[in-house]
Amino acid sequence: MTSRETTPFLPRATNERTARKFWDAAAVVSFGALQWPWLLKGLHGGTQAEKRRLLQRLDLPADALPNLGSWKADTGLLHLIVDKIERERPRRVVEFGIGATSLVIAAALRKIGAPPHLGFDQHGDFVRLTREWLAEHGLEADFRTAPLAPAPSGWPGQWYDTGPLEPEIDLMIIDGPPWTVHPFTRGAAECLFSLLSPGGIVLLDDAARLGERMVGRQWRKLHPEIEFELWNGGAKGTLIGRKPRSPDPAG
C-alpha cells in the first residue's frame, strides 16, 4: 500500500528487531488514553482547496495526492515544507518516515534545482512502492530501508538503524517512527542534530501531541544552542528548530 491510498486508523505494525519492553508497551497504552482527542483531530488532512493550491505550487496533477488525513501529513505541514525549501534553498534534505511528505519534498526540490533528498523508512515494500509513486511524476529520491533498533543515548523506544550519515544536513524532517512504538520514540533524532549545517532546520511533525511536546521540552534542555518554536499552522502542529548560523568573519 503506497501513501497515495487511504490509511487505516491504526498505524502499520513495525517489524521490531527486539521485543518491546513491558514499560514501552505500558507507555503507549497510557499516552493513547490521554491523547485520543488529539489523535482524532489529527486525522483531518486539510481542505480540498488547500490540497489543490499545494499541487499547483508544485506543478503536480490534481490526482497526485488523492488521499490525505489519517496518519499522513496534513496540508499545513506540506505547505510549510514547501515554504522552507523555497526560502532556504537547502542542498541536503533528510527525512525519517516516508510518505506524502516525500512526494512534496521531491517536487519542491526539483523546482529549485536541488539534488534529490534522502529518506528512511522501516518497511522495505513501502520504500519500493513510494519510489515507484514518485517515478510516475518524474520525481526521484534516495530512499533506504532502515530497520528499527533500540534508540540511542538512553531514549526509550526505537530509532532507524541508518548507519553513518554525512554531515551538513540543511533540512531534517521527522515524521516517524509512529507513536505506537513509544510516545517518545522520535526524541532519538536529537542524536543527529550535530550533523545539521549552520542555519540548518529540523521539523518535527505531530508536535502538538503529548509525547512530542515532552520530547520538545527535552530537546530544548539538551540543545540550548538551537532555537525552537511550535508552529500551529497545521492540524497536528510542527516543532521548528534552527541551528545558529556561523558568525560572519567580517563582522
The strand line-up of the biggest sheet is: 3-2-1-6-7-9-8
Which sheet architecture does the biggest sheet show?
7 strands, mixed
Low-confidence stretches: 6-11, 15-19
Number of helices in the DSSP assignment:
7
C-alpha Rg (nearest Å):
17 Å
Described by the principal axes of the CA atoms, the overall outline is globular
Question: What would the keywords be for this entry?
Answer:
251 residues, alpha/beta, two-stranded antiparallel ribbon
Describe this structure in words.
With 251 residues, the protein is α/β, with parallel strands linked by helices. The chain contains seven helices and nine strands, in the order H-H-H-H-E-H-E-H-E-E-E-E-E-H-E-E. It has helices at residues 22-34, 36-41, 48-57, 75-88, 100-112, 124-136, 210-222, and strands at residues 93-96, 118-121, 142-145, 148-150, 158-160, 169-174, 196-205, 227-231, 238-242. Helix 4 runs parallel beside helix 5. Mean pLDDT is 85; it is low at 6-11 and 15-19.
